[in-house]
């Protein structure tokens, strides 16, 4: 829940900004205005170098937007906690910049971090009201790397409770920046809605079964689910360690590549990252080529990968039209398209391997809680017994209680997973494709029910027509990119590559982005300049 102190700070920022950045548009002779809406990392860095903005004024502008559109206006509910020390930290970054230049590649780049990832200066709620005052005693590895690169954590983004869905006991429903009646997708919905509305320059999400790519797709963003060993999960509350990972959420492919450069690397606190050693290029930005689709072989999956898809629905047909136009444009950009790729029994296989995996959560969550001596709860059972978890999330978490990776059922899940992985490896080899492409969702995001917070079942928690599960089950990386609009609502597609194929993903996604320019800012959160 948002503190009164944080809200008061945002209000002070708004009232004071007329004499700062926004006041410069009212006949002032001050330096030219720097508009933060849709600003990229490069835009921010250039404005700092040229003296068009200071870090303090930059942060003031973003805080003003959070107050105007998250706390009021469309009330997106994207920011769980505002960093009340943001202006103080901005002043320090300004002093360093003046004395010796930028701290790093992300100097003073305002960043939203999903509230699942530990920050020792800001509460980490995991979307659970019982953790609203929980301050971890150290930063997660990815947060430490962001800070070392000069990033400024402007706030923690709201999230689906314990990494699922779009509602939580800590904040209620997260709202879509393009239509607040609708879901922002989950569970990194706050990061998605917040970055889309320019509450920060960039954002960090977490992806267990699609939680980076879903919010990215419905907000015309770029969202990368990386190969699991590339990014440390140390300091992040787990859901399913075999598929949990952290990824960038940005408005451009270039920003995603720059941010990903900062995030990746070995961390002895997360031993799985040892498998990523020597798999990381000097910079992923070297893959960004406008001709990156030329002669790339793209396999297109059209078949639904979720049993709740309704092929007779109007929005299904409209999404198909967006996908058709994306394919046509890829062909114009030089891609070789292998259409109608099919994976035998894909819906049932994903049910067995993803939905059937209830064995990891309790043990992993209990270990995370024990690692924090000041955590208000010490086990997942205690959390559920508190009665504070939103009913729909409590129901799904109850299915994991008493289950363990030692159970025979878990061995069967892993066998099914290996079978599906081998099948897709073989399929891609036989078709000689570099990547597979598909719609992130076959339907538009659903309308949030008035009683969503009290229901025990939310049929669209993961999003109707959800195709995101294939990537985590396989252990393949995937990137969501904007593919077009249906009315004002964005539609996203995904490209999925073999493990450690992030360079291919950035190359292809960048070429598609530069050849289409489908990114549109939300009409409900316009620039505040001059207001």
From TrEMBL:
Residues 58-505 form the Amidase domain. It comes from the Bacteria. This is Glutamyl-tRNA(Gln) amidotransferase subunit A. Keywords: Ligase, Transferase. It is an enzyme of class 6 (ligase). Pfam families: Amidase. Its EC number is 6.3.5.-. It comes from Luteitalea pratensis. PANTHER family: AMIDASE, OS04G0183300 PROTEIN. InterPro entries: Amidase_dom (IPR023631), AS_sf (IPR036928). One of its GO terms (molecular function) is ligase activity.
